[in-house]
């Protein structure tokens, strides 16, 4: 039999390949594969469904990931996907794959983090699956949520001249991970060394315990602003902006000097000899919201703390970064392309 | 830190432990952990949500599991959980964990099986997650479905004197697995041997490609019968009947001579020197429906082909098997108790 390596397709190629094979048969199914969450018509409202899986050794390293934080993060990233449709998550199911390395106390810690997130985001744990896993530790969460039908936001609604906005700051989670990896190597070389993380606390917090921006969804709702398109930044601003552009059939111009990057991120970028702009564009795991609004909503948007306009959408489909040095550079996608 | 081994809790102990920590906060959440599917109030109807994960090396062995069948089965077992609430599944999300051992052609095969099941059960694939996995191959599916509010069936509604019914036949999947394991050992000992499975086709089909009994749900609906309690048999009749009994606060008397066991299952039980009754009670993976009905529904139930009354529910909470030899034996639970 022929054998094509998955690496030749990459993540997005694989998703496109799967999507092309399926068509929806039920009238209730409004949106399937291809956005932050699927959309089901349940009568008065739309129900949103999203799912994310976290594998030990791929998404987290138990040597520096407290299980409490892992539990919190696993919930937050799903709540974030529901937020990216302009919806509010209400329920989650939690599935775990376990080996005998994991103690009851460790599971308790994981679920303490999950519970803390459930309380923080007002979400109910309604079910799941617990299974033995032949290999590593696995956490898979599915979230359901609701949105008013006239307020749903897809990736494909951006129009030329819409303003591109982002919440919070970018690149911090990327450097948080670099710091943890460095401390792990130091520890492995000399186990008597204690990690020195105090000054990097902000960065480490961003990778270990990101927050879903449901606060922004509530604020936009109160202001009566419905974004024309939205996505949450999981793979990196570049990759996620390209999803909006491709699906909306538009381009974008992003201003380098508008990218929100914290001082500690800047400092740490110098330390690691990595461009902070590259980290902001391609670092990923920020879980901030990236969205577009009509120009007429600009005044309202400026009232929302922690939302920053960083560019605008264009008729021309090029997706570009306007450089501080003058000129532009093309913004390119990322995603996993290599499996072990 | 104290360390308690998970094996001391077992699967059901762990689920109870998790359940005890959480309370639901949203009015829409009707039923959380503890049934075949969670129940969410979405207005006119109830939405049902269920999830199941399958790990390579635990739930399937790629050396004798065609990926097409694995895909079909992964969908069917979730559709079966929705059916066990008297509902009809409408959507699924599919999450896969991949290593570089898996080719694009293998993924295509998996999704062909998933597609075949989607068409067979009229279910839409609406999303999922594709991730690298540090180790084995993993398939996690979440299904959503609907049921009329006045037709939902829980595990906890059985009443004394209700009739206990089961669909199809039992124990075949258990022996299908034994046959596959035996042929694998023969093959490993001598790779030139071709497996001889023709006469065991029925058994092997039951483990590799079980069907969800949505046909029974439609038939019951047409007859106007709403079971008083229902569960699908995944862990084995014994274990699943005990869930109904515990949650309903009743006992049961099951007649050994009523247990539906096919001739080929009987024959193979002799071959493997395993009691066919033990396989029927504790084999698991049958994915048949186990349900109770009021005595007044008995006449209607007899019109449904492939449904068999096998006993009745009792005020006394003992759960017993009435033996052919006279006397009774206690029916005991199973579930996973040992992790590797």
TrEMBL record, chains A, B:
Positions bound to Mg(2+) 4: 36, 50, 81
- A biological process from GO: thiamine diphosphate biosynthetic process
Could you say which residues bind Mg(2+) 3 here? 36, 81, 232
Indicate which residues the UniProt annotation says bind Mg(2+) 5.
235
- Known EC number(s)? 2.7.4.16
Question: What Gene3D superfamilies does the annotation carry?
Answer: PurM-like C-terminal domain, PurM-like, N-terminal domain
- Keywords tagged on the record: ATP-binding, Kinase, Magnesium, Metal-binding, Nucleotide-binding, Thiamine biosynthesis, Transferase
Which residues are ATP-binding?
111, 128-129, 155, 234
In terms of Pfam families, this protein maps to: AIRS (PF00586)
Which residues take part in binding Mg(2+) 1? 51-52, 129
**What InterPro entries does the annotation carry?**
PurM-like_C_sf, PurM-like_N, PurM-like_N_sf, ThiL-like
Superkingdom, natural source: Bacteria
Give me the residues that bind Mg(2+) 2, please: 52, 81
Which CDD domains does this chain map to? ThiL
**Residues that, per the record, bind substrate:** 59, 285, 336
- PurM-like N-terminal domain segment(s): 34-147
- State the Gene Ontology terms under molecular function: ATP binding; magnesium ion binding; thiamine-phosphate kinase activity
Supply the enzyme class, top level.
transferase
From the UniProt record, list the reaction(s) this protein catalyses.
thiamine phosphate + ATP = thiamine diphosphate + ADP
HAMAP family xref list: TMP_kinase
Miscellaneous notes: Reaction mechanism of ThiL seems to utilize a direct, inline transfer of the gamma-phosphate of ATP to TMP rather than a phosphorylated enzyme intermediate.
The entry's family comment says: Belongs to the thiamine-monophosphate kinase family.
Give a short account of what the protein does. Catalyzes the ATP-dependent phosphorylation of thiamine-monophosphate (TMP) to form thiamine-pyrophosphate (TPP), the active form of vitamin B1.
**What name has this protein been given in UniProt?**
Thiamine-monophosphate kinase
Q: Which organism is it from?
A: Emticicia aquatilis
